[in-house]
């Protein structure tokens, strides 16, 4: 069954950085499986290894030891060019800083992941419009520059860019970190709706009310997953009274 398919499988992941003679063991034997259609959050204090873990899942970095499988593919056996292709086709990224290119229009920003694929202009336009609507955006934004939009609107454009290539997985790294509370609610409502429609989402956050919007939380500390559990939807930012 598709719903039972593993989209991400990490086996005994270690990551070590060296600075001169000093070694920093950032990840220490991480094991994690995320199935199709799941929505999980990863929480932990600053320096716990959250961002490093996200970079390894997103194929932006390689572990020193352990196995990474994305949609059943063992990426350790692949060349950098093959990894880049998987990253483009199977993973969509949403960042805290939006990472939109200010000199491009909203349309051009969303279209970017499609430009290295063999897709007609007409098909690209269709996919861009569909993605923006799915992300809760307005087609009236397409000709605008990002700086003409609010922070919450820019993040929905970033979500549309993540969706446009129809990836297997969406990685959201502190997607509400630069937003006020009301804008953060809108972004989390968008991610919840996308998950209900079948999208697989991994969210990194320091905000427990954001983390509780997922189905399950994994807690990371000093490079190790120290616990996990079901979320409390009553304490999700969408349901919180605060």
UniProtKB/TrEMBL annotation:
GO MF entries: ATP binding; ATP hydrolysis activity; transmembrane transporter activity
Species of provenance: Fervidicoccus fontis (strain DSM 19380 / JCM 18336 / VKM B-2539 / Kam940)
Pfam families: ABC_tran
Entry protein name: ABC transporter ATP-binding protein
InterPro entries: AAA+_ATPase, ABC_transporter-like_ATP-bd, ABC_transporter-like_CS, ABC_transpr_LolD-like, MacB-like_ATP-bd, P-loop_NTPase
Xref: Gene3D superfamilies: P-loop containing nucleotide triphosphate hydrolases (3.40.50.300)
Keywords on record: ATP-binding, Nucleotide-binding, Transport
PROSITE patterns the UniProt entry points to: ABC_TRANSPORTER_1 (PS00211), ABC_TRANSPORTER_2 (PS50893)
GO CC list: membrane protein complex; plasma membrane
Residues of the ABC transporter domain: 8-240
The UniProt record lists the keyword Heme: no
């Amino acid at each position: 069954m598709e719903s039972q398919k593993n989209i991400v499988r990490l086996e005994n992941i270690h990551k070590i950085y060296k600075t001169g003679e000093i070694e920093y063991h950032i990840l220490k034997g991480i094991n994690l499986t995320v199935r199709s259609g799941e929505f999980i959050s990863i929480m932990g204090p600053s320096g716990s290894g959250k961002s490093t873990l996200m970079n390894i899942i997103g194929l932006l970095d390689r572990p020193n030891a352990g196995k990474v499988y994305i949609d059943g593919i063992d990426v350790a056996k692949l060349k950098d060019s093959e990894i880049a292709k998987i990253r483009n086709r199977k993973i969509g990224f949403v960042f805290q800083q939006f990472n939109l290119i200010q000199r491009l229009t909203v349309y051009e920003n969303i279209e970017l992941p499609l430009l290295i694929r063999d897709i007609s202009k007409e098909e690209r336009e269709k996919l861009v419009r569909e993605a923006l609507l799915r992300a809760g955006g307005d087609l009236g934004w397409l000709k605008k520059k990002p700086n003409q939009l609010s922070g919450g609107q820019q993040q929905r454009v970033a979500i549309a860019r993540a969706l446009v290539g129809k990836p297997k997985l969406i990685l959201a790294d502190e997607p509400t970190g630069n937003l006020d509370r009301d804008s953060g609610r809108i972004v989390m409502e968008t991610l919840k709706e996308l998950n209900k429609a079948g999208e697989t989402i991994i969210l990194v956050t320091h905000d427990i009310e954001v983390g509780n919007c997922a189905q399950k939380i994994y807690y990371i500390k000093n490079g190790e997953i120290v616990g996990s559990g079901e979320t409390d939807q009553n304490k999700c930012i969408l349901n919180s009274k605060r």
